[in-house]
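TASK: fixed-backbone design
INPUT:
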């Protein structure tokens, strides 16, 4: 989207103002995983961020993905996720973003929501790092619910 302002005229020409839209990078990451899983891809790539690596680590520990790796240096870092399938069916049945930029969702460790009656996990961002719901209860740490996976 381009916008022009009359106050930024220079020699009779108008300069373009580039306005960046804010993006939900975690939501984009989860969508990349969801789409690759539904398309039966072996792996998927995304740009690197520490929180994305933390989410991938939890997904690997819980058996939702086979593996992940970080490649590249500094700004060119990429995270590659190797998806896991059981008899041709994805280990990830569903992955939903809970807390969004326009609607943040927080919970205490006492009121931790269960995913599918305990069959799935919630991933939370806490003061002690990114944790799954059972670790939050054990450490008595609440936080922002990033997503639910089942």
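OUTPUT:
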């Amino acid at each position: 989207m381009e916008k022009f302002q009359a106050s930024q005229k220079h020699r009779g020409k108008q300069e373009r103002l580039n306005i960046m839209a804010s993006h939900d990078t975690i939501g984009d990451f989860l969508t990349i995983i969801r789409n690759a899983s539904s398309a039966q891809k072996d792996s998927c790539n995304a740009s690197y961020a520490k929180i994305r690596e933390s989410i991938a680590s939890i997904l690997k520990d819980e058996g939702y993905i086979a593996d992940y790796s970080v490649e590249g240096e500094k700004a060119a870092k990429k995270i590659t996720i190797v998806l896991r399938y059981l008899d041709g069916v994805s280990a990830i049945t569903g992955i939903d973003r809970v807390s969004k930029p326009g609607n943040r969702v927080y919970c205490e460790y006492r009121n931790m929501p269960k995913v599918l009656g305990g069959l799935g996990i919630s991933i939370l961002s806490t003061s002690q790092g990114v944790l799954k719901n059972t670790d939050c209860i054990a450490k008595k740490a609440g936080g922002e619910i990033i997503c639910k996976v089942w």
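COMMENT: The radius of gyration is 19 Å.
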